[in-house]
Amino acid sequence: MHNNAPRHFLSLLDFTPGELHDLIRRASELKRMHYAGEAHTPLRNRTLGMIFEKASTRTRVSFEAGMTQLGGHALFLSPGDTQLGRGEPIEDSARVLSRMVDCVMIRTFEQAKVERFAAHSRVPVINALTDLFHPCQLIADMQTYFEHRGDIRGRTVAWIGDGNNMCHSYINAARQFDFQLNIACPEGFDPQTPVLEPARDRCTLTRDPMQAATGADLVVTDVWASMGQEEEQARRMRAFAGYQVNDALMERANPEALFMHCLPAHRGEEVSASVIDRPDSVVWDEAENRMHAQKALLEMLLG
Ligand code: CP
Ligand code: NVA
């Protein structure tokens, strides 16, 4: 029998702060078990449908390997090979797929599309990146911070660059994990007001990246042109000149500051090679933790 009211993960605000903390604790525990070679297969005979309308390396592989490790199976569904790409309504796709699989992960453009899918799904739906949010990345980022430095509560995070989906999820994380977020964006690339406004007590917005980085415990950036913005690349390169995370910027942060980037990165654009490849850059742990964090998420949603 199907669950009448499945739990979804479309934004970090769908879970309580307590649930998010439990999730990252569990992620670290699953990571320890994985390293110890302890088999943990609670999702035997369960299937995750993975709809990708944008490219992916980390998200696809972390969900697929994670499902295998949990004893289940993951199904890669691209619009080019399914009726989704030929115009079958998202609501109908949700009704059909959710009668066959146990969970659905979606990477697409509009946030409204994952919400419409979820509204018609019998099974949990996970946002695996939209133009608005990337919540799965944030649970991995928070896990990574906790593993390296302990609780992020009361710490200062600097977001340098585009007010994009990752920036929006950092704004939500500032609310849920209770940290200060200093955002530095060029004019015209601010985060959206409906996302920022409810977090005004936790966030500052400046045009000065050096000011945002001052005293930061964590410095984060992302590409200047996200998926779907390829034709804006040249204009964005000009607008974001001066927003590179480099050694001079990291000098302003606390001596113990970490650097994160969701990847893929462009060395020499949003981050210098010297920063991404230095020891206090934790981008590889951050990428690996996608798998552990999403295993904890799948276990929680399907448990
Ligand atoms: N960070 C991230 O989501 O990477 P992919 O685009 O490779 O999935
Ligand atoms: N902001 C980037 C993140 C990629 C993981 C994008 O949306 O393309």
How many E-type strands? Answer: 9
Distance between the termini: 15 Å
Let me know the CATH homologous superfamily of the largest domain.
Answer: Aspartate/ornithine carbamoyltransferase
Order of SSEs: HEHEHEHEHEHEHEHEHHEHH
Annotation field: number of helices = 12
CATH architectural category of the largest domain: 3-Layer(aba) Sandwich
Ligand list: phosphoric acid mono(formamide)ester, norvaline
What does this structure look like?
The protein has helices at residues 17-35, 58-69, 90-97, 111-119, 135-149, 165-177, 193-196, 209-213, 233-239, 247-252, 273-276, 283-302; strands at residues 47-52, 73-77, 103-107, 125-127, 156-160, 180-184, 203-206, 218-221, 258-261. With 303 residues, it is α/β, with parallel strands linked by helices. A five-stranded parallel beta sheet has the order 7-6-5-8-9. The chain has a four-stranded parallel beta sheet with strand order 2-1-3-4, sandwiched between helices. Helix 4 links the parallel strand 3 and strand 4 (125-127). The longest helix is centred in the last third of the chain and has 20 residues, at 283-302. The two termini are 15 Å apart. Bound molecules: phosphoric acid mono(formamide)ester (CP) and norvaline (NVA). Residues 56-59, 129, 137, 262-263 line the site of phosphoric acid mono(formamide)ester.
